[in-house]
Amino acid sequence: MSVPEEARALVREARRVVVLTGAGISAESGIPTFRDAQTGLWARFEAEQLATEDAFRGDPATVWGWYLWRTGIEAAAQPNAAHRAVADLGQRVHVDVVTQNVDTLHERAGSRGVLHLHGSLTAFRCADCGQPHVGGVEAPGSPRVIEPPTCPLCGGRIRPGVVWFGEPLPHRTLSAAVDACTRADVVLVVGTSGLVHPAASLPGLASEEGIPTIEVNPEETVLSSSMTYAVRAPAALALPLLVRD
Ligand code: NAD
Ligand code: ZN
Asked: Euclidean distance between the first and final Cα of the chain, in Å?
């Protein structure tokens, strides 16, 4: 694996960097990517079948159990060298972290002001009245089908704080991400398949402004051909090399 010197120079000389991340940056922390998370009890579901409001309304215990299982995985996971490299870069220059991830590994590595395009797993709230859920939840040690708790105000079911397929992204977060991507000196695109829009449209907005883009992903993606540089390597290996002073 080698990181092109030109790509390293782009990061070294940048004053404003955007790091757009997807599930792949957390894979080496042991959090399964979306495509890998359909295991055991949920193997018969497509991600799109679990991550929708219809799925939750139709079979709340199956969907809630899946998210609780992922909550437990997240709680046990630690940031990896890629999350730390992004946080370290933020100590030297202005970095906007724009993530599709619903985990908190960027924050736990030390990044601040992370823009969570798809919400946060543990920002539980009532599915009917939106009231935040206080009181926490207990993650199961093994995958189980679990009835969600109910809202003390309206009796509605408690749901995870993620943005499901078909739901709008948080407006202010998305516009801050667009703003960051169109003002950056370079945009790094790390561990995303580029299939979920509008997140996947952000690198294109940067390109339209003439801003260089660098992909870090062991696999080729639908975004690869429009990137200025593509580094074909796992994030925890490549990012520290890419952003090293
Ligand atoms: P995705 O599952 O569609 O794609 C993951 C990408 O990561 C793939 O292109 C894969 O080649 C790449 N990848 C795998 N291992 C990698 C590594 N070590 N280093 C770099 N790249 C690696 O994920 P997505 O593009 O983020 O979109 C799917 C949706 O899944 C998002 O909406 C997101 O909210 C959700 N999701 C989040 C988490 C999380 O919070 N950690 C986990 C799973 C899914
Ligand atoms: Zn309620």
From this structure: 19
Phi, psi of 117 (to 5 degrees): -60, -35
Candidates 118, 133, 171, 197; catalytic one: 118
Do residues 113 and 95 touch, judged by C-beta distance below 8 A? no
Cα(100)–Cα(168) distance, integer angstroms: 13
Looking only at the bridges linking them, the beta strands covering 158-162 and 16-21 are unpaired
Between the CA of residue 23 and those of 41, 53, 61, 101, 153, what are the distances in Å?
A: 21, 21, 24, 6, 34
Per DSSP, the residues of 136-174 read -----SS----PPPB-TTT-PBEEEEEPPBTSPPPHHHH
Could you say which ligand is closest to the alpha carbon of residue 169? Answer: 1
pTM of the model: 0.94
Find out whether 37 and 45 touch, Cβ atoms under 8 Å. no
Q: Is 45 in the pocket of ligand 1 (CB under 6 A)?
A: no
Q: Is 83 a catalytic residue?
A: no
At 193-244, the pLDDT tens digits run: 999 999 999 999 999 999 999 999 999 999 999 999 999 999 999 999 999 8
Q: What is the pLDDT of residue 44?
A: 67
